[in-house]
Design goal:
The protein is mainly alpha-helical. It has 2 domains: about 15-100, Arc Repressor Mutant, subunit A (Orthogonal Bundle); about 115-250, Winged helix-like DNA-binding domain superfamily/Winged helix DNA-binding domain (Arc Repressor Mutant, subunit A, Orthogonal Bundle), CATH 1.10.10.10. It contains 12 helices and 5 strands. The strands form 2 sheets. The protein has a 3-stranded antiparallel β-sheet, with helices on both faces. It has a two-stranded antiparallel ribbon with strand order 1-2. β4 (about 155-160) and β5 (about 165-170) form a beta hairpin. The longest helix is centred in the N-terminal third of the chain and has 18 residues, at about 55-75. The chain starts with 14 loop residues before the first helix and ends in a 16-residue tail after the last helix. The relative contact order is 0.11. Residues about 210-240 have low confidence and may be disordered.
Length: about 260
C-alpha cells in the first residue's frame, strides 16, 4: 500500500481549468503574458504539466473567453473582466446592493458633474495642460484637478515645451479600473460623437521645434512622450507627486465657492 505522501495531486484536464484557477487565486489582475510565464515555469519543475507550457497567447485568450461565456451562461453573479489589458474575477454590478449590505459598506461617493467634465476633457485630450482645461470649461480647475490626482484618476505625465513649461496631465491605470475600461481606445466606442484626440497631434502642440544640432536633446524628451501616451508608465518628472501637487495646485483647502468634487448625498 502506498503511503499518503506518495499520492500525487491530480493534474488539471484543460487549459481553461488552469487559467481559471490562476485568475481566481492571483492577488492582482493577470495579463496573458503573466499566465503564459506561469505555465512555462511550472512545466520546468513538473514534467507532467508540460502539456500547457506551449500555450500561445491566442490559446490563453480563447480559454479566458470561454470562462467569461460560461460565467455569463450560468449567471452566478460573477464575471471575468478585462481591465487595462489584465483579467480578474469580479461581482456583477447588479448584485452590488447585497454585497454592500453584507460588507457593511456605504454607497460610494459619486463624482460631481464638474469633476466628471474635467476628467472627460483630460481623458479625451491628453496630454493636456491645466490652462487648456480651464479654457474649455471656462472656470478655474485647480481644486478639482488636485482631487482627481489624489483619487489616482489623473497624474502628471510630462511638461510642455511651450513658454513656462506647464505640466501636462493624463489618466492613470486606476482610471481604466474605475470605469471598467480595457484601454483608452474604448472611449471612442462609448460615445461616437466624442473621439479622442490623436496622440501625435497633442504632442505636436506641446513640442517646440528644435534645430538638427539639438537632436541629442530629443532623447530626454522621449521619456515624457512615452509617459504621456501610456497611462501605466510612471511620471516623467523625478519630483514626488505630493510636491508636484503643492507646486502646481497650491494650498490644500479649496477656495470659497469652489465646485464640489462629489455629488451631494
Amino acid at each position: 500500500m502506498s503511503r499518503p505522501e506518495e499520492n500525487q495531486l491530480p493534474i488539471a484536464s484543460s487549459l481553461q481549468q488552469v487559467v481559471g484557477a490562476l485568475v481566481f487565486g492571483a492577488d492582482h489582475p493577470l495579463t496573458v503574458e503573466e499566465i503564459r510565464a506561469c505555465l512555462r515555469e511550472v512545466a520546468d519543475e513538473s514534467p507532467d504539466a508540460a502539456s500547457f507550457a506551449e500555450a500561445s497567447a491566442r490559446d490563453v485568450r480563447d480559454a479566458l473567453e470561454s470562462i467569461g461565456k460560461e460565467l455569463e451562461r450560468l449567471k452566478l453573479g460573477i464575471e471575468l473582466a478585462e481591465i487595462s489589458s489584465a483579467f480578474r474575477f469580479q461581482s456583477e454590478a447588479s448584485c452590488g446592493r447585497w454585497l454592500r449590505f453584507m460588507l457593511r459598506k456605504e454607497r460610494p461617493n459619486r463624482l460631481s458633474r464638474p469633476s466628471l467634465e474635467t476628467l472627460a476633457i483630460i481623458a479625451y485630450r491628453q496630454p493636456i495642460a491645466k490652462s487648456e482645461i480651464e479654457g474649455i470649461r471656462g472656470v478655474i480647475v485647480d481644486h478639482i484637478l488636485k482631487a482627481l490626482m489624489e483619487l489616482h484618476l489623473v497624474r502628471i505625465v510630462g511638461r510642455s515645451d511651450l513658454p513656462g513649461r506647464p505640466f501636462l496631465y493624463g489618466t492613470t491605470a486606476s482610471f481604466l479600473d474605475h470605469f471598467g475600461l480595457k484601454s483608452l481606445g474604448e472611449l471612442n466606442e462609448m460615445d461616437p460623437t466624442l473621439q479622442r484626440s490623436k496622440l501625435s497631434e497633442r504632442k505636436a502642440i506641446h513640442r517646440k521645434a528644435k534645430p538638427a544640432v539639438q537632436e541629442e536633446d530629443d532623447s530626454a524628451n522621449a521619456t515624457e512622450d512615452v509617459a504621456a501616451s501610456n497611462p501605466e508608465e510612471k511620471p516623467a518628472s523625478t519630483e514626488s507627486a505630493p510636491d508636484l501637487v503643492k507646486e502646481v495646485l497650491g494650498p490644500d483647502e479649496p477656495p470659497p465657492g469652489a465646485e464640489p468634487i462629489h455629488e451631494a448625498p
